[in-house]
Specification:
Elements: H1 5-30, E1 35-38, H2 40-43, H3 47-54, H4 64-67, H5 82-88, E2 92-95, H6 104-115, H7 120-128, H8 145-177, H9 184-197, H10 211-220, H11 225-241, H12 249-277, H13 285-306, H14 308-311, H15 313-320, H16 329-332, H17 334-345, H18 347-372, H19 390-401, H20 406-412, H21 436-469, H22 477-490, E3 497-499, H23 503-509, H24 524-534, E4 537-540, E5 557-559, H25 560-573, H26 586-594, H27 605-621, E6 624-629, H28 630-672, H29 678-704, H30 710-740
Antiparallel strand pairs: 1-2, 3-5, 4-5, 4-6
Helix pairs in contact: 1-6, 1-8, 6-8, 7-8, 8-21, 9-25, 9-27, 10-12, 11-12, 12-13, 13-15, 17-21, 18-19, 18-21, 20-21, 23-24, 28-29, 28-30, 29-30
């Protein structure tokens, strides 16, 4: 808020200049022309006397009869104005508006009130009916004056008020992101972090083993079940809206019976879902909300059976809760669900702004109680809106914050006539005097601070939340939801971790530009290249964690938020554009290097929130964050694959050499007349191969040592065991070939 003060001051200076221009024009046309003859006496005047007020003539031109119309016999009036004739007849000349255009200062105050659009139609009507200084207004006397007020509303209200909104929102967004000096990519990265940290993995429901529960599971997951329930919700809303005051008893009985039927349907739905999902039913906030609505609906039926009329308001409250069932429609519409989620995301920020707003209202409430507690009542200052007590002061300021009739209230608090300069504190009816400067300063600063700035922070917070859902964001809320759904296929228990080796499968499931898409065939090299670009931290699974399996040991695990942030970072650095399976060209690589880095300082709020999320994930699962990331794991896997390929080729080459030597030995035996039998030849080849395998295993055992992480060795041994099996099968084939040979 304080960081926005220089920008707000600049806008305010330009705003004041435009107000002065319009005030000068307004004084030129409307000074002294916004009064009128009014009051009970004027309303009772005959038409001929009222016409004299409308079209006055000099006193000398009046007839003898007309000269007797004065309130005091033998009196006269000076000038030819409606005000002089009105007061001569004993009527009251009043101002039609609280603040007019008698001078530039007063006109500026009036225009400031108009900038809030409060009472501008009344002011425009008074200007259009103005006929000059101290003249009685007439309908449509100066229609061109409407252009002056419309032009000011367009410039002073629509433009400058929105300028205040824009400056406030811009500074609020920058200060909230901590990105006053950040680059565009860094601000985009901060917004992505805010969206990602609010996402959570989705728990996939699993079919139970009990036959009766399995049948319930199939029912609630059938394609027609949810549409049927949504249709019942819509029909139930129509039935609840069909009641009206004075409806016949028969119609009321039909509505009650229909509501009872719908309540039974929704109760059966909750029962089926409880049977199908078990404790997993309570993992969904929508299910909890639905269960509460069903509970209140059943309670409403029981209240009606007991006697709802005798219970009083309790029955109405219980029945009203049933309307909340319509909110479930948000769950089925993706666009509504995203907007609803955006509103939920803003709740913490709205609470902070509401606290600051309440603090300012309390401060001004105390000031108003001290300054205006004894000012006499007027048109707007009355029993309902005053500063006689602290609570009443707060309620009055809440009304003023919405812009409701605040300028009239300010004029009542500036009264300086027909009042007591020294009122008593215990006066039952206030009769003290106000002050123009005090009331004007009080309401001007309150309107600028609360209405122009603080309330616009709420608008800024909502706009920021909705902008994160929009198309302009590199990673929209819809893509976040798609990511959560794809993640749930690999992590059905919503542990938040999957093996790092499954990252390729995840990228294949994600749509473009996050991944490659389910229907796009890409090469393993493209998947590996994209995975290396994500720079995702790996985690060590907790001891005894069965969810990861042996595959988690091959490079560790990756966490939900880390993967999503890695994808977000990649989208920011590459502009969110990538052809499925396409390799990065040199131009794209150089462009990515030229883009501003999205790295943030360690003390940045986004970094702190991410660190806190990782700490919570480590505590909840017992996992430990490793020092290396997916790039290291992929590099180690590449080296391991190359080594296993080399060793397999070496074994095949050794087998070929052995067969070749056996062939040469057999040829020499034939030449020497010492031909061995086929069985003896095959046995010799097999013994030779076994000796070479033992020598190789001993060399590997001697060279392995204790270096490297234990998880890497265990994973390598498991993979080597499978490769050894495949290689041994190949050697058996070679033995068979040697035997046949």
């Amino acid at each position: 808020l304080f960081s926005a003060l220089p920008s707000i001051a600049n806008v305010f200076v330009v705003f004041v200049l435009f107000i002065l221009i319009f005030a000068i024009v307004g004084v030129g046309f409307l000074k002294g022309g916004l009064g009128a003859c009014a009051g009970p006496l004027f309303d009772a005047l005959p038409p001929e006397r009222a016409s004299l007020v409308m079209d006055p003539v000099p006193f000398e031109q009046l007839s003898a009869e007309q000269r007797g119309w004065g309130a005091v016999n033998g009196s006269a009036f000076a000038g030819t104005t409606s005000k002089a004739v009105c007061e001569w007849m004993g009527a009251e000349w009043t101002q039609r508006v609280a603040v007019g255009f008698d001078n530039v200062l007063v006109g500026s105050v009036a225009l400031f009130g108009l900038s809030t659009t409060e009472g501008w139609v009344t002011m425009m009507q008074a200007g259009v009916e103005s006929r000059g200084i101290d003249m009685q207004p007439a309908r449509g006397a100066a229609p061109a004056m409407a252009l002056l007020f419309i032009l000011f509303i367009l410039i002073g209200s629509f433009f400058f008020l929105n300028a205040f909104v824009g400056v406030t929102i811009d500074n609020f967004s920058r200060s909230k992101e901590g990105a006053v000096l950040a680059t565009t990519d860094q601000r985009e990265w901060i917004r992505l972090t805010d969206v990602v940290l609010n996402a959570r993995p989705i728990r996939m429901a699993r079919a139970p083993r009990a036959p009766w529960r399995r049948r319930a599971f199939v029912l609630v997951h059938s394609g027609w079940f949810e549409p049927f329930i949504m249709g019942c919700i819509l029909l139930n809303a129509v039935v609840m809206a069909a009641s009206f005051f004075g409806m016949p008893a028969g119609w009321a009985a039909i509505l009650d019976a229909t509501n009872t039927v719908f309540t039974l349907i929704f109760t059966a739905e909750a029962a089926f879902k409880l049977a199908a999902l078990g404790w997993g039913y309570w993992h969904s906030a929508w299910n909890i909300f639905d269960f509460l609505v069903v509970t209140f609906s059943v309670a409403g039926i029981l209240v009606d059976l007991v006697g709802g009329v005798s219970i009083g308001p309790v029955a109405s409250v219980v029945r009203t809760v049933r309307v909340g069932r319509v909110i479930r429609l948000v769950k089925q519409a993706r666009s509504l669900r995203l907007l609803f989620r955006a509103l939920l995301v803003t709740l913490p920020g709205l609470a902070n702004i509401a606290s600051l707003l309440g603090l300012f209202i309390v401060i001004y409430g105390i000031l108003g109680q001290q300054l205006f507690a004894h000012v006499r009542f007027g048109s707007a200052l009355n029993e309902d809106a005053n500063f006689r007590g602290f609570g009443q002061s707060l309620m009055t300021l809440v009304r003023v914050a919405t812009g409701e009739d605040w300028n009239t209230l300010q004029a009542d608090l500036a009264v300086g006539s027909d009042c007591s300069p020294n009122p008593q504190w215990d006066d039952p009816v206030p009769r003290g005097c106000g002050d123009v400067a005090t009331s004007l300063t009080f309401f001007t600063t309150f309107t600028l601070t609360v209405s122009f700035v603080l309330l616009n922070l709420v608008v800024g917070l909502l706009l920021e939340a909705f902008s994160n859902e929009g198309v302009g964001s590199k990673l929209s809320a819809e893509q976040i939801e798609q990511f959560s759904e794809a993640w749930a296929e690999l992590d059905p228990d919503a542990t938040g971790f999957v093996p790092a080796s499954r990252l390729g499968d995840l990228l294949q499931r994600l749509p473009v530009p996050m991944g490659f898409g389910r229907h796009n065939e890409v090469s393993d090299a493209a998947v590996r290249r994209r995975t290396l670009q994500l720079r995702i931290t790996t985690w060590k699974a907790a001891a005894g964690a069965g969810s990861s399996g042996a595959s988690a040991k091959q490079g560790g695990q990756v966490q939900f938020a880390d993967v999503m942030l890695g994808l977000g970072r990649w989208l920011v650095e590459h502009g969110g554009k990538a052809a499925p399976g396409a390799a990065d060209t040199d131009a794209e690589k150089s462009e990515a290097k030229r883009r501003a880095s999205v790295s943030l300082p360690e003390g940045h709020p986004a970094v702190k929130r991410l660190r806190e999320l990782r700490r919570q994930a480590a505590q909840s699962t017992g996992s430990r964050r490793l020092e290396w990331d997916v790039r290291h794991a992929m590099a180690a896997g590449t080296i391991s694959d190359a080594y296993r390929t080399f060793r397999l080729r070496w074994r095949l080459s050794t087998a070929m050499d052995t067969v070749q030597r056996a062939w040469e030995a057999r040829q020499r035996a034939i030449a020497a007349g010492q031909l061995l039998s086929q069985e003896a030849l095959a046995r010799a080849v097999a013994e030779r191969i076994d000796e070479e395998d033992e020598d190789e295993d001993w060399d590997e055992h001697e060279s392995s040592g204790d270096s490297g992480p234990v998880e890497e060795d265990e994973a390598d041994d498991e993979v080597d065991a499978s490769d050894a099996g495949n290689s041994k099968g190949s050697l058996v084939d070679w033995r068979g070939s040697a035997t046949e040979f």
